[in-house]
Amino acid sequence: xxxxxxxxxxxxxxxxxxxxxxxxxxxxxxxxxxxxxxxxxxxxxxxxxxxxxxxxxxxxxxxxxxxxxxxxxxxxxxxxxxxxxxxxxxxxxxxxxxxxxxxxxxxxxxxxxxxxxxxxxxxxxxxxxxxxxxxxxxxxxxxxxxxxxxxxxxxxxxxxxxxxxxxxxxxxxxxxxxxxxxxxxxxxxxxxxxxxxxxxxxxxxxxxxxxxxxxxxxxxxxxxxxxxxxxxxxxxxxxxxxxxxxxxxxxxxxxxxxxxxxxxxxxxxxxxxxxxxxxxxxxxxxxxxxxxxxxxxxxxxxxxxxxxxxxxxxxxxxxxxxxxxxxxxxxxxxxxxxxxxxxxxxx
Length: 347
Ligand code: ACO
What we know:
alpha+beta; 2 domains; four-stranded mixed beta sheet; 31% helix; 23% strand; globular; binds acetyl coenzyme *A
């Protein structure tokens, strides 16, 4: 198995900011309710001319620049999104063209908020099998386009943004430890219909494609599912929760993040939190949080980082990685890392 390393990370959010005070003027809500129940204070919203692929392209250029690579160096582009510009072509193809990554193949992955980890896991397998040496992995969303702005139960939660990383084959490190789970029987707890859904007897399809969810059920599920997924990846690396230096969870709700940290016995400061600034950006949230953690210098040499996420599907999972900046020039050092289980326990 060939090892994988993160050569560069990037993130981008649109300029438009929607605060809780703005939402108070749109629906029957309050800043205090939103902050108390979710931790969210503001979120970014795409301008009319922006799309998932334009946000993704911005984040991708930053990641590529930090990796000091040219677009032609890429073998593959994988984009994760639930809000593609259209049903096809893929966002990945649009980014591949926008970058001028002429050698790269491209496809999208959709696993709702779990999409980025599914895309990253896929990238590690391409590299591990020797089928690709450098893969651009993107999570990007314009959730503002599928939010019902009259539904206070959902519209306060979501935001737009993009995160990207370049994964490259490495001579050191080790194979990733990750788990991906799904329970499609719970699909109706969190869903958004699309234009290709079933028709009624008159041939009419869904009149809207808004996000629908059973918030309290998802809340309970999220805390338990992410906690157990992290335990699984730790167990496969023969580690315990105390070995985690930084937890980078899907940024859906501050209380969910705190619940997972508490269930794992981690102090709150060991969990990366930026949900207050961006809301839930679905598949963009984990790469944006990982990128911001690196920019803030929270990823020291050898730091063990546990990613975990959940979302529509229902789908959930976790990935364990070890951060290393060995041999990386200082100005890029904060956003490069080696993906590897921290300890293979004699394997
Ligand atoms: N402002 C004010 N009041 C509100 C709002 C709002 N924005 N939204 C709901 N309420 C009211 C409800 O109507 C209810 O009122 P009632 O008691 O009079 O009936 C009350 O607040 C409590 O509602 P709950 O839904 O029980 O509140 P809860 O504490 O569960 O918080 C929340 C709701 C924030 C949605 C929470 O359940 C949650 O975060 N769930 C997880 C959501 C999530 O993470 N989704 C992931 C999506 S990921 C993807 O794949 C897209």
